[in-house]
Specification:
The chain has 247 residues and is mainly alpha-helical. It has a domain of 66 residues: Orthogonal Bundle (434 Repressor (Amino-terminal Domain)), CATH 1.10.260.40. The protein is 53% helix and 3% strand. It contains eleven helices and two strands. A two-stranded antiparallel ribbon has the order 1-2. Helix 1 packs across helix 5 and helix 6 crosses helix 7. The longest helix has 25 residues. The chain starts with a helix and ends in a 34-residue tail after the last helix. The mean pLDDT is 85. GO terms for molecular function: DNA binding. This is Helix-turn-helix transcriptional regulator. It comes from Luteimonas viscosa.
Length: 247
Amino acid sequence: MSVSIDLVNALKRGLRAQGMTYRELAQRLKLSEAAVKRMFSRRAMSLLRLEQICEVLGVGLAELGAEAGRGREPMAQLERAQEQALVDDPALMLAMFLSINRWRQEDVMAHFEFTLPQWTGLLVKLDRLGIIELMPGNRARPLTARNFRWLVDGPMERHFRGTLLGDYFADPFDGEQDRLLLLSGSLSPDGVTQMKQRLEDVAREFDGLLARDASLPASERVGVSLVLAQKPWLLRLFGPYRRAQDR
């Protein structure tokens, strides 16, 4: 079966948006990487295979078709005004996270204290901001990549540093699903570069897991946040002991 160029391009955009390589897709489909590359280059895939790829990406065939018709890349970042609107309205920020994680309206109503008019109003605001496309039945089609990146030193990052960081670390990481590692040491510049790449690899793996589990009901998923960071740093309380030229 020959699939249209627009559909194949939409699949490719979906893979790029989630940071998924042909090799990773091949592993999920239990195929060789060469077979996947050949399938995309020749646009030769059955309807069943197309559905399997959609399942991996966490999208439906109808959504893929709509995306193919639009022919545009998902946003990898929001604009500053969009971020600021989310920071200014916590309910809107929550609605955005629920929407991009594909929560169904019935799950939202069951787990959060929104009335239907309130939830609809939030979706309308997200649609006007250009973060989602509001579809019939209050279904939201995200216009962002699934796990897009915030602007460096933008409204959301500053909000996280100033307000949310303390909340994130307020409770001990002692639960069954928790993990906190505090590591420090001295590395060569090459070692620092390698660690930075490993953090990027973990972020891509997280994106892939989000895509894999996106089609599961909300009751079978757990909200998880990762903070991945590294920088040259010394505790401020050590500052007085440092020589002037090293401060």
